[in-house]
Design brief:
This protein is α+β, with helices and mostly antiparallel strands. The chain is built from 18 helices and 6 strands. Strands 1, 2, 3, 4, 5 and 6 form a 6-stranded mixed beta sheet that branches. The protein is flat. It comes from Streptomyces murinus.
């Protein structure tokens, strides 16, 4: 692309606009994220917490890179943004086979950037000739920057693909992928390639982190933690991406022990599938773990460990998050925002089939204390608990797993 430097006046306007873009408004970022993750082709990226978080980080990094470059040299060509973060997202995308949707997301982001920048430019000058020159230079700059970044990302993905398709790790990934896809492969051959028995009861796990600066060795230590918590068990761990491990165990880990161990691994999250038998169980438990992971991400849950057995109902109820939120609000009323001791009392009471003595024991509290809390909770509900206990139980489960902006537990 031929590139003529803009006039001094236009350079000043570009610098002024870039300074505005360097501190983007939250609604601009929300619009950018929505565009880059929207659409059926990009759904596998949007549904994956690690990939979607990586795309959001890349959106911010690209926006700030272009803005900073135009503060330093307004109107000059902006080189592609390449960093360890972009290389990491390239590796993750290649390992999921999502190269084309990912590159398409950059183009979708470009359209949002153009709209945002046009609004900024129109706020800088009312002179039509100045505005025309400003938009001509800056929109060509945005287009050129995206072209360079997409080309650099594509080259990085090609390099990652070459590395991925060689070595023992590639063979294990390929074997796991074939098993998950239901491809014809004898159990004996798959076991030989994986070094893992398939004629057993499997518990699958997805172990991941969405913290950008996380120490990734924590993921492998978490896989070892799961194996130790399952007692004598075989372990299979496959690197699904830099920030994700797919794990299988021939046993069922003790979740209390895993939760205690996660205290030493602050960046790690774990989603467990339900135990299931044989090759079909290997596949089924993994799909359950993925469902659990996506539910935690969809609800922005503060919980760092969840099993499919305990969240299956919530995963179903929260497919449409907006409707789930309305259901919680209508069902719980003021109880939705009550202290946890009240909601925990109701959850325990319902879990113990409305037996106050057992619920008090479960909560390590006195029965009279529990009854007082239940009375307070009942007064906060739009309708008495006795009239719709199942609805209240379901709404409280969604509330329990839904993020509230606090720290993960």
């Amino acid at each position: 692309m031929s590139w003529s430097p803009p006039s001094p006046r236009i350079r000043r306007l570009i610098r002024q606009g870039a300074e505005i873009a360097l501190t983007p408004r939250p609604e601009w970022l929300a619009e950018l994220d929505a565009a880059t993750l929207a659409g059926e082709p990009r759904r596998p990226i949007a549904d994956d917490p690690v990939l979607s978080a990586g795309i959001r980080r890349a959106n911010r990094a690209n926006l700030l890179h272009w803005a900073a470059a135009n503060i330093n040299a307004p109107g000059a060509p902006v080189p592609a943004h390449e960093s360890e973060a972009t290389r990491a997202i390239a590796r993750d995308i290649v390992r999921r086979g999502l190269t084309e949707p990912a590159l398409d997301s950059y183009r979708a982001g470009e359209s949002v950037a153009v709209r945002v920048w046009t609004r900024i430019a129109c706020s800088l000058t009312g002179d039509h000739e100045e505005l025309a020159e400003l938009l001509d230079v800056s929109l060509r700059s945005i287009s050129d920057f995206v072209d360079r970044t997409v080309a650099a990302m594509s080259a990085q993905m090609n390099a990652e693909l070459t590395e991925l398709t060689s070595g023992t790790h590639a063979e294990r990934r390929e074997t796991v992928t074939l098993l998950l896809d239901g491809a014809p492969m004898t159990r004996q051959r798959a076991e030989a390639r994986l070094g893992y028995p398939l004629d057993a009861t499997h518990t699958a796990a997805v172990v991941w982190t969405d913290a950008p600066e996380a120490e990734l060795r924590q993921l492998d230590r978490a896989a070892d933690l799961l194996a130790a918590a399952a007692g004598p068990a075989h372990l299979l761990s496959v690197m699904a991406s830099d920030a994700t491990r797919w794990v299988w165990l021939t046993g069922r880990p003790d979740t209390d022990r895993v939760r205690a161990g996660l205290g030493r691994l602050p960046a790690v999250l774990i989603a467990l599938g339900s135990p299931a038998l044989g090759v079909n169980g290997f596949r089924r438990s993994h799909l359950d773990a993925l469902t659990t992971q996506r539910m935690l991400a969809r609800l922005a849950s503060a919980q760092r460990l969840a099993s499919h057995d305990e969240v299956e109902l919530v995963a179903l109820l929260s497919q449409d998050l907006e409707r789930a939120d309305r259901f919680v609000q209508r069902t719980l009323g003021d109880l939705e925002h009550a202290p946890d001791d009240l909601t925990d009392a109701v959850r325990a009471f319902l879990a113990e089939q409305c037996n106050a003595s057992r619920a008090a024991t479960r909560l390590f509290t006195h029965r009279n204390t529990l009854l007082r809390r239940l009375g307070r909770a009942d007064r906060l509900l739009p309708r008495p608990l006795a009239e719709h206990p199942l609805d209240v139980a379901a709404a409280l489960e969604i509330r329990h797993w839904r993020g509230t902006g606090g720290q993960r537990a």
